[in-house]
Design brief:
This protein is mainly α. It is 69% helix and 0% strand.
Length: 122
């Protein structure tokens, strides 16, 4: 994730780069998609998501401050929504209901809509 230079581009572009990195990891390591379905404690789940959640929070706050994203919802709520969308896309692929490329495109579109991103900001 550090190599994606997320702080070097507009927040919307950086967020989409971050999602692309996630999809690349799932393609290279399909077992990661299965790991998300394993039962675990709330604390373990939060610890697993913390590194990405912290980056998402910074990106969303930066996008809100720059006017790229809707400033009304809290960044914490938007992080939860974007994370849930990512999990939904992963479950669809894992269940064989969507090809990975289609799920990735749907995730990108849904994420930008949830964030209230302006069309010119991507």
């Amino acid at each position: 994730m550090d190599a994606a230079e997320l702080d070097e581009c507009p927040a919307a572009e950086a967020l989409l780069r971050l999602q692309d990195i996630g999809w690349q990891l799932f393609r290279r390591h399909p077992v990661l998609a299965q790991a998300g379905a394993l039962p675990m404690s709330r604390e373990d789940d939060e610890a697993r998501h913390e590194p990405v959640g912290a980056r998402l929070t910074r990106l969303i706050e930066r996008g809100q401050e720059a006017g790229e994203f809707d400033p009304a919802p809290s960044a914490a709520w938007l992080v939860a929504a974007v994370t849930a969308l990512g999990h939904a896309a992963g479950r669809e692929v894992a269940a064989g209901r969507m090809p990975a490329d289609e799920a990735a495109a749907a995730l990108r579109s849904a994420t930008l809509r949830v964030l209230g991103a302006s069309p010119g900001n991507t």
